[in-house]
Design a protein that fits this description.
With 152 residues, this protein is an alpha/beta fold. It has helices spanning 14-24, 86-98, 139-151; strands at 6-11, 29-38, 41-51, 54-61, 78-82, 103-108, 111-117, 123-128. The chain contains 3 helices and 8 strands; from the N terminus they run E-H-E-E-E-E-H-E-E-E-H. Strands 1-4-3-2 form a 4-stranded mixed sheet, with helices on one face.
């Protein structure tokens, strides 16, 4: 089975990104690399530790054009983190509010999720309790997906 190693986000403002992920979210800056030519752009990669050996990597490409506008719902693509406890989840809610970061909360069965955007509009989620994904394939899920695809 695969496990997540790292996720890469392109970013426009490296300073705002550093402040958001390191200072607000408290993710340690575990490394960086920079250079003069990534398809013709000067670049900076910032590596933020997520624990367990996984990383979030933010890449600034100086002078690169902005990506095209995605017309799908904003939260159709988002990245979820899990709080360590219900108390930690409440702390994140306060921390974002104190920093004037707009957020919204949703219930998903037993989970509560807090959604917010980074400086580039990337939607992030903090959830509690953690998702407990089964290790094997779910035959019922496979059947539902196949029925959905047949009707698409």
């Amino acid at each position: 089975m695969l496990s997540l190693d790292h996720v890469v986000f392109p970013v426009r403002d490296a300073a705002a990104t550093l402040g958001f992920y390191r200072d607000l979210l408290g993710l340690p800056l575990t490394g960086q690399t920079s250079g003069e030519d990534w398809d013709g752009y000067r670049y900076l990669m910032m590596f933020f530790g997520l624990g367990g050996g996984t990383e979030l990597v933010c890449v600034a490409l100086l002078g690169a054009p902005a990506p095209p506008v995605d017309v799908r719902p904003k939260d159709a693509r988002h990245y979820a983190f899990c709080a360590e406890s219900a108390e930690a989840y409440a702390g994140w809610k306060r921390r974002l509010a104190d920093a004037d970061v707009a957020s919204w909360e949703e219930r998903h069965g037993e989970q509560t999720s807090l959604y917010f955007e980074d400086p580039d509009g990337i939607v992030l989620e903090i959830t509690w309790p953690p998702t407990r994904s089964p290790d094997g394939e779910d035959p019922q899920a496979v059947g539902e997906v196949m029925r959905w695809l047949a009707g698409a």
